[in-house]
Amino acid sequence: MILDRPLWDSTYHFKISCVHQNISIDCGKYEIETSSLRSRSTEIVFDKPTSLQAIIHENGTLFIDWNTSLNGWRSSTKVIKLLNQNSEKLLDAITEDSTVYFHDISIGDYYVSFEPGGSNIPKNTELLTVHLIIVSNELNEIYAFLGSTDLTLKIIWSGSLHASWSMCKGRGVSSKKASIIDVDEYRIFLLNGSSSVIYSEGRLSPHKDNASFIFPGMSLNVEYIVKIQCMFRNKVFSCGEDRIFTNTSHYSTLYKNKTEIYVPTGFPSIWSHLNDHCLMSRGHLVSLDRSGLDGSLWDLSSFQDFWTGGNICRNSPAPSYSMWSDGSLNARINFAPDSELDGSHCCVKSSRNEQNQSLWKGESCDTILYGICEYVFAEIMDDLSDLRGESGSSNSISLSWNTQGLFWQPTSYSIQACLNRTLYSSTIIAGSSENCSRILINSTQTSVSVNDLDEFSEYDLKITASLNPYFLVNKTLYVKSRTQSSKSVEFTISSNGIFQTTWLRKVALFKEEESIRLNVSSDGFNSYQYLNGTASGTELSSLKLGESYTYYLEDELGGRLGPLEFEAYPNCTNGIRNYTFCMFILDKNLSYGDRNEECRSLGFNSDSILSESQLIHFHLWDIVHESLLFWIQSNGSSLDSKNRTLCRAWSRSLKLYTFTECNEKLPVLCFGDIQIDITTPTRKDLKIASGPTHITIDWSTPRNGWYVNYTVSYMDEMIFHNRSKRTTQIESQIRVHGPPINITGLLPRRSYSVTVMTALNNNTVRSLTVEGLSTTSDRRMSREIAILTNPKRDVLYAQISLISICALLTFIAIILLAWSRTLSLYPENLVQLCFQISTLCFYISFMLFTKDGPLAMDSE
């Protein structure tokens, strides 16, 4: 049994009667006093005045009346004080009723405070203090506005706060006529309960008897304050304030892809009041329609009995097919054998029996009990949006995001950053020891810096928002981001001589496809070359090995980067370039015998001996290692005076080679020649054409690559006219930049040996010798026109072809002669035609087949 609104400082006597078969027996008595001298004001809640109204008469008499709330202790009297703006008491009154009045009140600003009266009231117990303003309008009518609107806050368990209040109205009586006027506007503010930071605010115009406002996107386990300001003419005054804590005392579960939340009411009342309370928060009294739900709710609360949504009364809000107010199906029945369910006990409560079992019983709907509200939502946590990852520095990414502000704000975020790829192409940057890093944020902040990342790398970022541990809800969002580079630009030079530059700052911002112009010049060119490309790669397709170049980069908006310089040498796959070598220091110490095998496994295959000057000017000694002695790849060994084998090592302090024991473990400097790829012609690539005094050699060359030179030397092999076996060793040379190569000033009918040497920076890379290239006769057609690879066979074919042509022409002439009359031709003209054809055939044969003719048969 719960006694509603007991009177403070009173004595209550309880008597229990047991009835059996209409026989009543006294089962017990109990007496209790409802006050304590040790009570503190913060622990005792008295009933507060509600529905406050003030009315001012033209004679200055102020009437104030009110109702009492349904919750809290009743006091025997109420003490009402009228205060000025400095909270100093002007008037006071004590009343046992719900009305009080003050005389001689003028226009101005006041405060009215309400305190419980009677004996044994804890000190400093204040029920309510409200703002009172007395104003007049243009007609000199006076009104009293009392700043109490019965502001009520309710949690909507999908993540919103519902504020509702009664309209603040000014009331006055003049010339025995009562008048009521509304305020002009309401301003409502949502503040943090601990820091008073304003989260949100809104404005409303009065249009109904009750006003409401919803603040979406709330956070769990936070205290909020809602304040209302009323505006009338140029007056602004407080007309309501309340606070609420978004407590986490609830039970939740996922069922059919929806979140079900069960929250105790926090105060007892009759069935209809509690059901209305739940409905105001968009829920209803709990429906126990699933097995096991009873036990979970008993664990949530300490109630001996609590109201459920079951109602089988005549005026039940439940539909006809269900006993539950929300219309849930009657899927299970858990009534006690002595349920006492009847017409006067038609509301259903859940009770515990002596065996601590949960059973349903009927109860009078006017009985005061606690209740449990049930809320069902498809969405309960805000979605993440606008996830952005920006390059904070070379080792960090700034991650920020937003929420929609509609549902509960996430209580924690888990952020995972996984390395996707390293964006550098010319150098190797060591990766982190772990591919993924994780950050956990236990707050509602919406930005974070992810640190300790690899330089100039792309990361896959995943952020998971959750409401743990309050609700088992998670949502995930993905984004890619990149760290910055400590350099502005990077370039690579391939082994085949193609230069490519990358604007790193733009690539880090995902602007790799932005159009870029490359302006480049070199020592060999006074003017600039202008090349178009993108931020991810702009190419210069041909380079001269070892030459110095200067270049600029420009974007479409006029941004300029430069001047930048480079020397035309290929990049090293591993290590750092030093002169024409790639050098690399191993990260482990080895003996002399193991050094070569380890270096060669990494691709360093040079057998050269590095000079002391090359080692002295290796500019990364102090950065890469602290050791003073190094094994050098491919160095030799010797015997000392004691016949011990010593191996040569490089002393960084002495800057010269020295000898030490071969089994000593030292760092190893590996090196290899820079790889340079150029295309040189082969015999099958050549296209050769010859004339009486020249030989032309041509082949295809790539458009891109290193600039190369060709040196062509040729030598006369034999004298065709004399058919002599002796060879004339006369050699000549010419230098050209590329094909075709035209060798002139040769003698007819001679055989030559030609050598083509490909040179890179005046160093011969490869040579090709072709023998048996012959010039033609001075009166013979060039082999470029008549290509005869087998003279005897081809001449025979040519002779047969020409004789066939002459025979065909003669046959046509004879046919024309035979058919001359049919064709109406004159005989003398036909005879002349046949004579001309015969003469022509004879002349052609004579010119071609005589000794000096081009088709004359050569005995050789």
Automatic annotation (TrEMBL):
Q: Which residues form the C-type lectin domain?
A: 255-374
Keywords attached to this entry = Membrane, Transmembrane, Transmembrane helix
Q: Does the keyword Membrane apply?
A: yes
TM stretches of this protein = 796-818, 830-849
Q: SUPFAM superfamilies given for it?
A: C-type lectin-like (SSF56436), Fibronectin type III (SSF49265)
Q: What is this protein called?
A: C-type lectin domain-containing protein
Taxonomic source organism: Lepeophtheirus salmonis
> What taxonomic lineage is listed for the species of origin?
Eukaryota, Metazoa, Ecdysozoa, Arthropoda, Crustacea
